[in-house]
Design brief:
The chain is 51% helix and 7% strand. By secondary structure, it is mainly alpha-helical. The protein has one domain (4-134). The longest helix is centred in the first third of the chain and has 15 residues, at 4-18.
Length: 135
Amino acid sequence: MASRKHRHRDILKAFAEQVQHCEAEACWPCTDWSDWPCKRPLRLEIHHVMGGAHRIDAPWNLVRLCSSAHQWVTANPIEGRVLCWWILHQRGAFDCKAIHAATGIHPAGWIGAKQAEIRLPWVANLAGVLLEVSE
């Protein structure tokens, strides 16, 4: 039987093979590529939306980002989580019940509590849609 470490590595490897682009790229509201934080060539990384103790290798918790977008998501934890949840929603993997069961956090409650702290209008728009679909 494979060790837990090997199972996690296999899950992440399979996810990396399945998603071979920066998933944030389609969401970023730019009209000019100079506005996009991704630099060419892309170095792709896997981001756990719910990190720390909630760092679970599951489709509802994984997004593929280029290193620049990953840095942005990490540096902007509220906007970053909303963007990642939006990516999951677009992919059909935004599973509020699984998130709540694994973390104790319900996305609608979290978004509602953090909405006033969202600084970017385009992220606030994403949060509004997510709030509707997560209730």
